[in-house]
Amino acid sequence: MSRTTKKFIVLLVEGITEENALAPALKEMEASLNVRFKIMDGDPFTDDDNKKKSSKNIIGSLVATFKKRYKLQSKDIAFIAQLTDADGVFVEEKEITIAPEIDSDDGKMYELEMIKVRDAKKKEQIHRRNRIKKEHLIVLSNTNEIASCPFQIFYFSRNLEHVLFGTPVLGVGQDKSDEAWEFSETYASFESLKEFFHSDEIKVDGYYDETWDYIKADRHSLERNSNFHLLLEWVEEEIAYLERIGGLSVENN
After folding, report:
1. Which residues pair with 108 in a beta bridge?
2. What angle do CA 141, 146, 149 make, to 5 degrees?
3. How crowded is residue 140: how many other Cβ atoms within 10 Å of its Cβ?
4. What distance in Å separates the CA atoms of residue 99 and residue 69, rounded to the nearest whole number?
5. Which of 28, 115, 123, 169 is deepest in the core (most CB within 10 A)?
6. Where are the domains of the chain?
7. pLDDT per residue over 231-246, tens digit each?
8. Residue 242, burial from CB neighbour count under 10 angstroms (0-12, 13-18, 19+)
9. For residue 164, what are the CA distances in angstroms to 16, 17, 180?
10. pTM, rounded to two decimals
């Protein structure tokens, strides 16, 4: 069958909010690249079905599903980008503190200096979650290829809501979906999205490896920051390269 002459950039995201918020601006790039979102239906690293799988196998399975759906080979994919929430997973255990007054439904509250939990049982759950997710993030932040495709992982800290909306927990009457659509309307162009993620409030300076060194240190995984700007820079550079060479074709089968 004949394949498209445009390669794919695949964004692995935890939910529909990421796609709703980011897709309109990224779709501007479709003259040169096919931009597709693969929704993982939650955090794959804390899914019980994945607890015995390696980091690369978890993501490799998701990529395989995507390839099958679109009838693609590895050569058809220019880049795979996984987006993840930092969730405070790099804080030390002593920074998970018990506060019986916590009345949230999930029994925890994130602050800039600590994670507060309702009781000892919840503290153990969060500590275990942090340990598991941290191990996966360390592996994948040092991985540059999944399923024979270029790969990198980018973080939102403390989470997507914190970065995009300025608050890690939406208030009463706020809806995540509505907030995402409002964000996508405000930052509907690629240029405006790039400016947002390059703002001093959000951007983590440095090369890719250095941005991961930063989020792993101190309490940065509780703070508002992201290295997503590096993905936008890659997209811009890739498109400039394609324009220089007059496009990048994929062989027909």
Report:
1. 117
2. 115
3. 21
4. 47
5. 115
6. 7-89+139-245
7. 999 999 988 888 787 6
8. middle
9. 14, 11, 8
10. 0.92
